[in-house]
Description:
By secondary structure, chain A is mostly beta strands. In chain A, 3% of the residues lie in helices and 37% in strands.
Amino acid sequence: MSDWKKVCAAADVPENALRKFDIDGKELAVANYGDGFRVFPPYCPHMLEPLAVSGMLDGGILTCGKHLWQWDLKSGEMKGLSEKDILLYDCKVEGGDILADLSQELSYDWEEEDELDDDDFFN
Amino acid sequence: MRITIQTKGGEFEVDCEAGDNMLYAGLKAGVTLPYECGTGTCGTCRCRVMEGDWELTWADAPGLAYVKQEKSETLMCQARMKGDCIIRVPGEITKEDSGPDHFCGRLENLQRLTHDVASFSVPLDRPMDFMAGQFVVLEAPGLDGGRAYSMTNYGTGVSRLDFVVKRKPGGGVSDWLFAGSPVGIELGVFGPLGRATFDPAEDKNVVCIAGGSGIAGMMAILDHGVASGHFADHTAHVFFGVRTEKDIFFAEEFRRSVEKFPDNVNVTIALSDAQTTDGLAEKYPGLNFATGFVHAVASERMSGNYDNMVGYVAGPPPMVDGALRMLVLEARLPGTDIRYDKFS
């Protein structure tokens, strides 16, 4: 069952900006890529780099400042040096607010407790 | 002693010597393990130790912030093996025919270039092949751990490595170089390392943004581009950031490169803490001068002209971050065409 929650006002995140919010105990990054918004865990899937701090956004491309991994936020696809997908919450803009479906449990493998038992470790 | 490296793409078994750290052992055997600094600061060479006895060589390595030590994760470059080990390493890893290795040599030809910059050479016990822009880790007797230094030279079968070092307060090797009498002392050398390399076959224009001794690798790139004739039909824009005029070095080397290809090779010295004067241009013919932080000066002078370009960045971490932002957001170079070293 979905759990749509307001993350922030659309006006809180100017074009090409990245902002971090804490909603219901979940850390969220919001990106305004010009044609729309994306909501995602605020850390790079590679090495936990805080994307709302050192990430860069331009022309729809999000770049992590540590190793320059990149994603196309329009399509959600990996670009260039990136080796892992970015995980995105479903989100929408309603009445000037950005809402995200926080029923989704999005986590990268470095957050998983049972990764030792996982054959596909660190994937 | 043996290390077993488990990766997504398969398992690699590597013989190694007692006292080897996991990173160097794997790299030596040609396993393309992930790393950036090779000296404990960046956190890129993390792994999980599944079995085996090992110890940390630098318990306070800043890069350990990136690993969960309680889950037996560690940095391969700081993990000295005491017996056979099995480790797991993330990322796309393959095995090549050869890799970097241990060398040694006695420090010679120490020369002061400015009040806090010196150059020196290390003739090697056997020749090394390395590309312009690569670095090695130097280890000095009595100093814990190694420090990464880029070579100002490059080539195949090179018998002598050339370096430039800036004195940093509390910088172990640099204090040792400046305060002591290090000439003739034997240094351990591990390398070559680093992917911030220049290859004329890439057929690209070059922009180099460097601060202080970060210029080292750029000198090799500039030399290679000149010697190979690459800059006859490609441009090179070098931006070298220093604080004031008394911090300028390599001016003569820059002038010689500019003289060879004056239409295509462009060198700008950015002074962060001083105004430019007419006297500077007279004193250093062929070089351009500007006031400001080096990445801001580069941004202004390049003014959007980044056609078919590869960018190189090296220097103090805040300068590197500023230059990377500039190359990503303004130059819009793809990550594959931005090459940098973030030693700190």
